Amino acid sequence: MDILIDKELANIKSHIIDYATIKAILEKYNYKRINDKIENLKRQGIIKSLKKGLYVHTSMQNNIISKELIANSLLSPSYISLDHALSFYGLIPEIVVGVVSVTTKRAKAFKIDYGVFEYKHIKKELYPIGLKIYNANEYTFLIATKEKALCDKIFFTKNLQISSKKRMLEFLVVDLRIDLDDMESFDKNIVNSYYIKSRSKNKSLVGVIK
Prior knowledge:
Helix 5 packs antiparallel against helix 6 (about 145-155). This protein folds into 2 domains: about 1-65, Arc Repressor Mutant, subunit A (Orthogonal Bundle), CATH 1.10.10; about 65-210, no CATH class. By secondary structure, it is α+β, with helices and mostly antiparallel strands. About 40% of the residues lie in helices and about 20% in strands.
């Protein structure tokens, strides 16, 4: 019976499974004590807990499970942003280990076997600006556009004083090591909308975008 359950769980393309899905599969095989069976599946190493009510199937495919998908799943609504998104788009040279997301909920962090997942709070007016659904092979995840990821980076950087276009250029080129040529395709409307709704340090960034 466990082989059949394992097979059904493995067929879930994202490999991330919520409680309701596991419950439905177990009830299909006439299990009554759902929580006990879930604990048994964990002990067998068939599933691993990400947080209460959320699990990942531990098949070989999970060696390359998407951290972006995990980040979206751990806390919703949320989207990938800041350094992870900037690295994802190749705008900054650093390899980013942890995943930083932005949410309308309270700031939070998860330290699990798959890494550290941090969530920063943003007001609801800013949340929907500049988001995109990224389509991978068998799953999708929500991520900031490169423009919004940079706006978020500026917005959330503590003690950052941007009083001129020159200082903004210095922050982009020296601090973040962004190649300005990579910003030529930026959508100025996204940056401008972010500035209008946030009234933050992004005003000088509007002047940098051509």
